[in-house]
């Protein structure tokens, strides 16, 4: 069962440099995939997080863009800015992206970084980062504030992703802010709704047609019986 928590947790006091060092040493001792955290001289630290993409709606990307090359990555070429043409498609369900970030990297920066890697040009405000936890057979989701530091949460939880993992989802605020979507996106939603409506109608027709055939067969058998 999935449960989304909306209650904000009280933040503890910031740890001292010595406490951070001890936590990193304890964390690295449990790492089995060489993805260690590294403490810098200025007290900051770097490490890796994995983010699961669980997006139910299509995203907007540039149309006709070639795959990013190593040269593009090194030169930080933004391929999305090379065309004004847009198209919408669904990202693979539960795709996973690994990010190397700093202890000063915020949730907002993680979201923007993920969108850039997938060349998604949608407004970052449409998305939210959640932390996923498992407790008493339940899967709990809690939306993270944009100013939260994901690497610190990873450090506190340890490297076990069963204890804590990160998920990128749509930013559900109760009311859908349709003004935040582009015209192609809205048109794509209409096409999806139209297809779903037709599928539902077809399912209902099949259900009642089958029921009708059974009734007709029963009546036919009853009429054929004497008395």
Ordered list of secondary-structure elements with their pairings:
Blueprint lengths: L1 E4 L11 H14 L7 E2 L5 E9 L5 E4 L7 H6 L10 E4 L5 E8 L4 H11 L9 E9 L2 E6 L6 H8 L7 E6 L12 H41 L4
Parallel strand pairs: 1-8, 3-9
Antiparallel strand pairs: 2-3, 3-6, 4-5, 7-8, 7-9
Q: In percent, how much strand structure appears in the residues?
A: 15-25%
For this structure, the CATH topology of the largest domain is Ubiquitin-like (UB roll)
Number of domains: 2
Mean of residue pLDDT? 81
Q: Biggest sheet, open or closed, and with what strands and sense?
A: 7 strands, mixed
Beta-strand segment tally: 9
For the record, the CATH class of the largest domain is Alpha Beta
The value of Rg in angstroms is: 25 Å
Distance between the termini: 56 Å
Helix content: 25-40%
CATH superfamily of the largest domain: Phosphatidylinositol 3-kinase Catalytic Subunit, Chain A, domain 1
Number of helical runs? 5
- CATH architecture term of the largest domain: Roll
Q: What letter string, H or E per element, gives the SSE order? A: EHEEEHEEHEEHEH
The poorly predicted ranges are 66-77
* Derived structural class: alpha+beta
| Shape by Cα distribution | elongated
Domain Ras-associating: 87-173
Organism: Setophaga kirtlandii
GO molecular function, one term: zinc ion binding
Domain SARAH: 175-222
């Amino acid at each position: 069962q999935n449960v989304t928590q909306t209650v904000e947790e009280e933040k503890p006091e910031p740890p001292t440099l010595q406490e951070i060092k001890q936590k990193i040493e304890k964390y690295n001792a449990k790492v089995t995939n060489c993805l260690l955290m590294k403490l810098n001289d200025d007290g900051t630290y770097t490490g890796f997080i994995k983010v699961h993409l669980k997006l139910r709606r299509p995203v907007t990307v540039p149309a006709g863009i070639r795959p990013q090359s190593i040269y593009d990555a090194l030169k930080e070429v933004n391929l999305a800015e090379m065309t004004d043409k847009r198209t919408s498609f669904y990202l693979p369900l539960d795709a996973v992206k690994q990010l190397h970030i700093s202890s000063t990297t915020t949730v907002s920066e993680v979201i923007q970084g993920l969108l850039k890697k997938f060349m998604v040009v949608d407004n970052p405000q449409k998305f939210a980062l959640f932390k996923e936890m498992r407790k008493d057979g339940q899967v709990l989701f809690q939306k993270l504030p944009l100013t939260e530091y994901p690497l610190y949460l990873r450090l506190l939880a340890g490297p076990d992703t069963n204890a804590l993992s990160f998920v990128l989802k749509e930013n559900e605020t109760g009311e859908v802010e349709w003004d935040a979507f582009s015209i192609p996106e809205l048109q794509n939603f209409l096409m999806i709704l139209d297809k779903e409506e037709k599928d539902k109608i077809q399912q209902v027709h099949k259900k009642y047609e089958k029921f009708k055939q059974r009734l007709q067969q029963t009546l036919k058998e009853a009429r054929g019986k004497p008395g």
